[in-house]
V-ATPase proteolipid subunit C-like domain-containing protein
Amino acid sequence: MNPLIAAASVIAAGLAVGLASIGPGVGQGTAAGQAVEGIARQPEAEGKIREELRGGAIEQLEKARSRLRKVETEAEQFRVNGYSEIEREKLNLINSTYKTLEQLENYKNETIQFEQQRAINQVRQRVFQQALRGALGTLNSCLNNELHLRTISANIGMLGTMKEITD
């Protein structure tokens, strides 16, 4: 049950008891007024009238006490039920918070793993690029030396041929 509804029910029950007490109060006042008139008319019947008036008042008081106990019992039930519901909602909220924290922790770990893998891949790529640059430099150097030697050999060959032709 919603705590707001439970609280409103307790308040409504209290108002009902209060309003219900107005009727007997007016009735007791009327009865007392009539009793005073009766005693004024017949002073010899005063003891009997007072006894009847007291008996009616005691009976009304017992009824009011009974209603009050009933309302107190209902209010206690609403209070206990309200506390139980609040405790259930609190536990649900705590469980939900733990689940959310667990999900966030998993997301954090996945993100960390992803970023680590990404960093490793970037390092591998840079190492591979540097290795390729070094190999290309070495290859170019070798090719340049080979080309240089061939060019020199070709020039020597041409000079040798030119010398033979001129001799």
